[in-house]
């Protein structure tokens, strides 16, 4: 486990180093597309204007997020992994984290959940939506608020909650 943590930390330093002393506005903007507002707007627009799958998409998303959020909160409180900006010395993130702990990444979980739902209902968007979700996850590392393994855990959480909700409906 120690070598996994070391590798995770080394990879974090390498990725974060790519943004050192650089303008990160576009990375911050990409990260903010995963704040959640876009998901609600998309769900409502599809519900209103897409007769074939819109309603089922919205219901699936509401179910998936109602399952994902409690699991996410329980994992954060149970695992209590400190964020890089709180743990590493002489380090400052590009943004202020949204909460205290880093594992799993909530932005990444939500993005992969949404990407999975969109790709399930609209398969032609698969590359676009998974690329977008991956960029959100990467942005969280580049901004200094998550380790790479936080991103992998978030992606796994989002995907599993999406698949579970789709199997129920």
Automatic annotation (TrEMBL):
Transmembrane residue ranges: 26-49, 55-75, 110-133, 145-166
Cellular component, GO annotation: plasma membrane
Domain of life: Bacteria
Enzyme class: hydrolase
Location within or outside the cell: Cell membrane
The keyword Phosphoprotein is annotated on this UniProt entry: no
EC number annotated for this UniProt entry: 3.6.1.27
Classification via SMART domains: acidPPc
InterPro entries in UniProt: PAP2/HPO, PAP2/HPO_sf
Catalytic activity: di-trans,octa-cis-undecaprenyl diphosphate + H2O = di-trans,octa-cis-undecaprenyl phosphate + phosphate + H(+)
Pfam families hit by this protein: PAP2
Keywords of the record: Cell membrane, Hydrolase, Membrane, Transmembrane, Transmembrane helix
Membrane topology: Multi-pass membrane protein
GO molecular function: undecaprenyl-diphosphatase activity
Domain Phosphatidic acid phosphatase type 2/haloperoxidase per the UniProt entry, residue ranges: 57-166
Main location per the UniProt record: membrane
PANTHER family xrefs: DECAPRENYLPHOSPHORYL-5-PHOSPHORIBOSE PHOSPHATASE RV3807C-RELATED (PTHR14969:SF62), SPHINGOSINE-1-PHOSPHATE PHOSPHOHYDROLASE (PTHR14969)
Name of the protein in question: undecaprenyl-diphosphate phosphatase
Organism, scientific name: Paraglaciecola mesophila KMM 241
Lineage: Bacteria, Pseudomonadati, Pseudomonadota, Gammaproteobacteria, Alteromonadales
């Amino acid at each position: 486990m120690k070598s996994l943590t070391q590798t995770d930390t080394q990879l974090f330093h390498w990725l974060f180093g790519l943004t050192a002393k650089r303008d990160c506005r576009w990375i911050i903007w990409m990260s903010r597309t995963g704040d959640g507002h876009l998901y609600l707007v998309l769900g409502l627009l599809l519900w209103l204007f897409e007769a074939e799958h819109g309603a089922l998409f919205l219901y699936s998303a509401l179910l998936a997020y109602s399952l994902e959020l409690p699991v996410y909160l329980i994992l954060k409180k149970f695992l209590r992994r400190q964020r890089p900006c709180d743990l590493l010395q002489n380090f400052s993130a590009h943004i202020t984290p949204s909460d205290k702990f880093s594992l799993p990444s909530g932005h990444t979980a939500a993005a992969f959940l949404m990407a999975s739902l969109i790709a399930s209902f609209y398969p032609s968007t698969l590359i676009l939506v998974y690329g977008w979700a991956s960029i959100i996850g990467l942005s969280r590392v580049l901004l200094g608020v998550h380790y790479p393994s936080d991103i992998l855990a978030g992606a796994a959480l989002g995907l599993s909650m999406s698949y579970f909700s789709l199997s129920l409906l």
